[in-house]
Automatic annotation (TrEMBL):
Family as reported in the entry's similarity comment: Belongs to the sigma-70 factor family. ECF subfamily.
Pfam families in alphabetical order: Sigma70_r2, Sigma70_r4_2
GO terms assigned for molecular function: DNA binding; sigma factor activity
Name the UniProt record assigns to this protein: RNA polymerase sigma-70 factor, ECF subfamily
Keywords: Sigma factor, Transcription, Transcription regulation
Length: 177
């Protein structure tokens, strides 16, 4: 009886901790998913997959990094895996481009949506490593935090980011005119 009660309390504590982590990081996670997936529905599916993988992996979190770093790593891995899987079956898959979904709470003016679309198009031309770096950078993470998540050195991140920003500027500048 006593072990059953303590097990329930531990499960409730874990559920509360999981919910707290997701609530804290949900917007960041969704942004990452929206970079790796095609709108309108795919980011939501990918987001659910990321949340599920975080839930499954949470018991393996050892605390050697921050929980945010742990969550970012999972999100990037799930998104990159999903993108690779899609690219393998791309010629066999039809996308539903005609379905348009705009969450009411996140309405953005048309010019901002267009700029985001241009940025997303340019990001999609980058390789996997550069894409993951720019996604983390756009979430306002420091080079130190990006290095911790990716395993690269801070100096390497700085050099890569300078090159990535240049590529993105060259890509997006003609589109924004």
């Amino acid at each position: 009886m006593r072990s059953e009660t303590s097990e329930k309390m531990r499960a409730q504590k874990n559920d509360a901790y999981f919910e707290e982590i997701i609530e804290k990081n949900k917007y960041k996670l969704y942004r990452i998913c929206s970079i790796y997936a095609v709108n309108p529905i795919e980011p939501e599916d990918l987001f659910q997959d990321v949340i599920f993988q975080i839930w499954k992996s949470l018991e393996h979190f050892k605390g050697t990094s921050t929980i945010d770093t742990f969550v970012y790593k999972i999100a990037l891995n799930v998104c990159m895996r999903s993108k690779m899987k899609f690219e393998k079956t791309n010629d066999k898959t039809d996308r539903f481009q005609s379905i348009h979904f705009t969450p009411i709470e996140n309405e953005i003016d048309a010019s901002e949506q267009e700029k985001f679309r241009f940025l997303k198009e340019c990001i999609s031309t980058l390789n996997e490593t550069d894409t993951s770096l720019i996604v983390l950078y756009l979430d306002d993470l420091s080079y130190k935090k990006i290095a911790e998540i990716t395993g690269f050195s801070e100096n390497h991140i700085a050099v890569k980011m300078k090159r990535i920003r240049k590529k993105l500027f060259e890509c997006i500048a003609p589109k924004i005119k």
